[in-house]
What does this fold into?
Amino acid sequence: MPSNLAIRTQGLTKQYGQAFAVEQLDLEIEAGQFYGLLGPNGAGKSTTIHMLTTMTSATLGDAWIAGKKITDDPVAIRRTVGLVFQDSALDRTMSIDENLQFAAALYNLSPEQANARIDELLTVFGLQDQRNKKLVTLSGGQRRAIDIARGVLHKPKVLFLDEPTIGLDLPNRRSIWRFVEKLRRDEGMTIFLTTHYLEEAVACDHVDFIQNGRLEQGGTPADLIKQLAETILEIDTDKSENIVNQLASLFGDPIREDQHLSFKIIANDVDFSALQKTLGDQISSMQWRRPNLNDVYLWRFCAPDTMGSEK
Ligand code: ADP
It folds into this structure.
């Protein structure tokens, strides 16, 4: 195994009864990468993280973190990885300091090491003056920041973020990402992210997709967007059938959501203004724009011929 791989898996599989939560997963993630695993609910993302962090054992296959096979010394693996889950690992009745000291003790940090690291992280998160405040008095964004601080107290080589910003508003999501980016830059951590907010995954070096436990090869967000289409055409209409009949032969079948149609257009010479005039009052609105990672995701998981795969 090349020494610069932070994560490697070979045929990693988790079976519950007859069902495969994750099937034959082969991954190679280089050290320092910001990696995103995207897929619908129930696709196998959390199970993958649980296996890689030794929280659950694989049914089949092998995995290595920073060159170490995870089954050889699970305790050492747990010291090498950091975890931030959707559900907070913090005790809301305790203060920031108490929560972080407790976690530091679990990682066997000395009191001096713990204090220095807690100071350092609270400074990054702008919470150095709140150290003795109880968590229950903090905002959701501040609590999430403390969750992340807890996950990186022991300077892990690989940080797993499972839907880290779920439920947060946009300003809080942005500040969480600023902290994570700073940690990544300063400490060279590899980051393994799952998220439903695809705009967050645009910053990834590489994203893959997972569906029904099977990995689907992805790429860099920029390449995936470029490969998807030149333009996304969105039309609102109460005459969907008419519009699809007129446009499907030109652009293919759209994704339909009630009265909203979304076509992906490969050609770069379409005169959209003329098209809008032709469609006239059959449509209530029409817009055309560059594709983004949300479109890549939608066309992979909600495209006309895959409808119903999102659970
Ligand atoms: P995701 O994180 O992508 O939403 P999960 O990894 O949580 O998906 O789940 C993958 C599949 O495995 C789902 O079908 C889920 O119901 C199933 N699964 C997860 N954990 C268990 C479990 N402890 N027992 C049985 N089935 C499970």
